[in-house]
Specification:
Strand content: under 5%
Number of strands: 0
Helix content: over 70%
Radius of gyration: 18 Å
Order of helices and strands: HHHH
Number of domains: 1
Structural class: mainly alpha
Number of helices: 4
Shape: elongated
């Protein structure tokens, strides 16, 4: 995995958690709006909308750079529209990045031994 691909995956991972939290906060604020006088939906909605757009942009970049199959790309997109999906995406992206680091180190060590 090259540096740009690793960076794209890291950016997607870093925005997935805040996007999931903002989605959950938006759901809570929506319930509070209908049951109390508290109305933070416009503010939380704008924050969540911004984070969702950033997530989709980073998702598209990661899909392009990592050359994911359609099934993998669809999984990560679906995680952006589920209330807790960002947490699952973060966990899976972390595992994918760790596997890539191990593979990169193995390939590097084979190159050093073969030289």
């Amino acid at each position: 995995m090259d540096l740009k691909t690793a960076s794209a995956l890291r950016r997607l991972r870093l925005v997935s958690g805040p996007e999931a939290i903002s989605f959950l906060l938006l759901l809570v604020c929506s319930v509070l709006k209908r049951t109390t006088e508290f109305n933070a939906v416009p503010v939380v909605g704008a924050i969540h909308g911004f984070l969702f757009v950033v997530y989709v942009l980073f998702w598209a970049d990661a899909w392009n750079r990592a050359k994911w199959p359609l099934k993998t790309a669809a999984f990560y997109f679906a995680m952006s529209v589920l209330p807790t999906g960002g947490f699952f995406a973060d966990r899976r992206l972390r595992r994918e990045a760790e596997d890539a680091v191990v593979a990169s180190r193995a390939a590097r060590s084979e190159g050093v031994v073969g030289a």
